[in-house]
Design goal:
Layout lengths: L6 E5 L24 E4 L9 E2 L3 E3 L2 E3 L2 E2 L5 E5 L7 E5 L14 E2 L12 E8 L5 E2 L5 E6 L2 E8 L4 E6 L6 E9 L4 E7 L2 E8 L13 E9 L7 E7 L6 E9 L1 E8 L6 E3 L4 E8 L12 E6 L4 E5 L18 E3 L32 E4 L13 H6 L4 E14 L5 E9 L23 H9 L7 E8 L13 H10 L25 E8 L16 E4 L18 E6 L5 E10 L2 E3 L6 E2 L5 E2 L2 H20 L7 E6 L3 E3 L10 H19 L16 E4 L10 H11 L23 E5 L2 E2 L13 E2 L3
Helix pairs in contact: 5-6
Length: 756
């Protein structure tokens, strides 16, 4: 392959004349704003774009164009005000030059008394730190870089890389005081491009499943810094680059579709070009220790060496600053499609906000009426990571003599059976052999692994006996069980959880959410220092919660700490334990509240999901709301809340298929239109292990796999152990590319499975 070199396109910047006329006598203009203009190889997320690959003067180039909003930082050590931030005007949009920059900082660069001044600039301005000498700049190549995918042909996809790491610099020396300053920008970052081919069709033929690629990794040898902090000094003849202490030898590339936010999905015979920006490199040779690695949504990884073929000139394998280095196409790979739902959360990036995760769960997890298999471990193995314990009191008479004694109360689990009445009008008790809450808690917590987290929802059973004293109620007993758990580190502490909490902050823990019947402000026995989270989410419902034309289209409650202060998290939710068996008429029961129709439940749950879709589609979406859909329960036929025989499975079949259809319809590719991916939150369902009647395992699997199909909001500054996150004539530079890099592994070997 022919080596392609960096090519500089010269553009006439007509607004300015020559600055080097020695006959012009400088007239100092101290305090006056410097007039700036420039043409740049711009870079800023999706706002800065590459032009199409073209041929200029027999050289291959990639012109770069300004996009409205692009910003540069400009400095001069010889001016009174030595730095300012500027923005390109609207008329520079999609051009490679700008006749004037608009000052957006409080003060721009201002002339001093010196007759001539040198000027320096970096693009983009965001995150750049200027040295005290005004000639050095510290910036960061992100270790995780995003790309937007667009289909450009039947079998080919184009990629628009995130341009926030495509740094450029400009230096203009000896400008006469008072003259306009023309800035000619040149690329600084090193770019590496390669073409990724879809899976080998020989294994599955025309029925070959697509490869859903959640992560692509460019790996350099240990000690070679390609991401992280670096400093460039511009005062010399050529830029001098030094790396900082916060560096990495890996760059992660995450590519998602513009329309759906879905991850890169490749079918056989499809291909896509991928781009990675790295710290400016000069003299670093590509060796066999360099490789590309990618991860599928099932967690399987593949890698391929990038070493040179025998006889390749060293010059063709050496990286250079400001150049694009194109690698040869990667061969197709034989895809391993095996999937282990028990380990699905391992594949979620650690810096993703909790609001972004879709978690399948079981409604009334240990209730034999609503789960065909109430064994927690069995549910866990299918991928369930959210559980629901509906509690009810048990009591036992303790004799203290012939005619004396007292009742002792223990919080148990409502398991579909009723014991005795607590008293006239006082509700039902659980049988004495019902599972204790503390035992069920242990069954759940002991399953959580160090590389995942789980959620436990706690409610109080409808029609349950109301045991209450000045010091004790069911909330108190839940908190006591959590506080006294044998391994306290396995319970997430609500006092440290905020809207900015990420997956890595709660690994190996269970988040306990207590669903209160009343407003939090009216709760008199909330434990002040509890690890639990609290929200108003009753099982005894009001009609207003399901009226289609109510002011609130779904319930939104705050999530609180035990001291009554908010966590900063909203809870967009809906749930119902009882449902009318009449298709059009809801039922108001005597003791269990409002029983909505199936359609009412779908309408409200659909509103929650519509909010999630709209929120995710917005560019500056919030991550301060969690989503919860309680889709389990049973049907009743009258105001006495008599349940309909077999209605638990009917609810399971109805709502499992409903949510499964929504998830499947998020992407109908390749036969239909993509509707876009978005989180569905915590979803509790009946009969999650029942495959023959309620489609449980398939629904659970599709919900958990949803997490691997779209790019989730994350904290770019989070690191492990950090805790909860909070974080004239102007030259247009058009970089070409060098090549000659050949995979050292032959196509016969192809991709190899990685053990990383």
């Amino acid at each position: 392959m022919k080596i392609k070199y960096l090519f500089i396109v010269s553009l006439a910047f007509m607004a300015y004349g020559c600055q080097d006329n020695q006959d012009v006598k400088p007239v100092p203009t101290p305090g006056e704003d410097v007039q700036l203009g420039g043409a740049i190889n711009r870079n800023n997320l999706t706002r800065t774009i590459y032009g199409d690959e073209t041929i200029e003067n027999n050289q291959t180039v990639f012109p770069i164009y300004w996009v409205k909003g692009d910003r540069v930082i400009v400095t001069s050590p010889h001016c009174d005000v030595k730095q300012g931030i500027y923005q390109v005007p609207e008329d520079a949009d999609n051009r490679d030059y700008a006749q004037v920059f608009t000052k957006i900082s409080n003060a721009g660069v201002q002339w001093g008394t010196e007759e001539r001044a040198d000027f320096y600039s970096i693009y983009p301005a965001e995150g750049v730190r200027v040295g005290t000498n005004s000639t050095s700049f510290t910036m960061n190549i992100p270790a995780s870089q995003e790309s937007t995918i667009e289909k450009i042909g039947e079998k080919t996809f184009g990629v628009k890389p995130s341009m926030n790491a495509c740094f450029m610099y400009a230096k203009t020396a000896g400008v006469i005081n008072g003259s306009p300053v023309d800035l000619g920008y040149q690329p600084l970052s090193t770019a590496i491009r390669f073409t990724l081919n879809g899976p080998d069709s020989s294994t599955g033929g025309s029925n070959q499943e697509p490869a859903i690629i959640t992560k692509i990794l460019l790996h350099a040898p240990q000690g070679v810094a390609i991401a992280g902090d670096f400093t460039v000094e511009l005062s010399g003849t050529t830029p001098t680059v030094t790396t900082g202490n916060n560096t990495s030898n890996e760059v992660e590339i995450i590519s998602t579709y513009k329309e759906s936010s879905g991850y890169l999905t490749l079918y056989p015979d499809e291909k896509i070009e991928v781009n990675a920006f790295v710290i400016p490199q000069d003299g670093i040779k590509i060796t066999n220790e360099w490789y590309i690695e990618f991860t599928l949504n099932n967690g399987k990884t593949y890698k391929k060496s990038l070493g040179a073929a025998s006889g390749t000139e060293d010059s063709k394998m050496t990286l250079q600053a400001g150049m694009i280095h194109r690698l040869p196409e990667m061969p197709a790979f034989k895809m391993d499609v095996t999937w282990d739902p028990a380990n699905w959360m391992v594949n979620i990036p650690r810096n993703v906000y909790l609001s972004e995760i879709s978690i399948p769960g079981s409604w009334n997890s240990v209730n034999t009426n609503q789960q065909v298999d109430r064994d927690i471990a069995s549910q866990y193995s299918t991928g369930i990571r959210a559980f629901h314990l509906d509690t009810r009191w048990k009591r036992e008479w303790v004799s203290e003599g012939i005619f004396q004694g007292h009742y002792e109360y223990t919080l148990g689990i409502a398991d579909g059976r009723r014991g005795v009445l607590g008293g006239i009008g006082q509700g039902n008790l659980s049988p004495n052999d019902a599972v204790d809450f503390s035992t069920a808690l242990d069954d759940i917590v002991k399953l959580v692994k160090d590389d995942e987290y789980m959620v436990l929802m706690c409610t109080y059973a409808q029609g349950g006996y109301d045991y209450y004293t000045e010091t004790r109620n069911w909330i108190t007993d839940i908190n006591d069980a959590v506080t006294n758990y044998t391994n306290p580190d396995k319970i997430a502490d609500a006092r440290t959880i905020t809207q900015n909490t990420v997956v890595g902050d709660v690994l190996g823990k269970v988040i306990v959410i207590v669903c209160c019947e009343n407003e939090i402000a009216n709760q008199t026995l909330l434990p002040q220092n509890s690890k639990c989270m609290f929200t108003r989410l009753p099982l005894i419902l009001q009609e207003s919660q399901f009226t289609p034309y109510s002011i609130t289209l779904f319930n939104q409650d705050n999530i609180y700490k035990g001291d009554g202060t908010t966590t900063g998290i909203k809870f967009n939710n809906t749930q119902a334990n009882i449902t009318s068996n009449n298709a059009t008429t809801a039922i108001q029961t005597n003791e269990r509240g409002y029983a909505p129709t199936i359609q009412q439940r779908k309408d409200i749950a659909g509103n929650v999901l519509e909010w999630s879709s709209t929120n995710y589609e917005s560019q500056e979406f919030n991550h301060n709301a969690w989503i919860y859909l309680g889709l389990g329960g049973y049907q009743i036929s009258n105001a006495n809340a008599s349940d309909v025989s077999g209605s638990h499975k009917s609810i399971g079949l109805e709502f499992n298929n409903w949510i499964n259809g929504i998830v499947n319809n998020m992407s109908a590719r390749p036969t239909g239109e993509q509707t876009g991916y978005y989180p569905v939150g915590i979803v509790l369902m009946n009969f999650v292990t029942n495959s023959t009647e309620c489609n449980g395992p398939e629904t659970v699997n599709n919900i958990l796999q949803l997490n691997t199909k779209y790019r989730k909001a994350s904290d770019p500054n989070w690191t492990s152990g950090s805790g909860t996150s909070g974080t004239s004539d102007v030259n247009s530079a058009a970089p070409g590319y060098s090549s000659g890099m050949t995979d050292n592994n032959t196509d016969a070997f192809g991709w190899t499975r990685s053990n990383r």
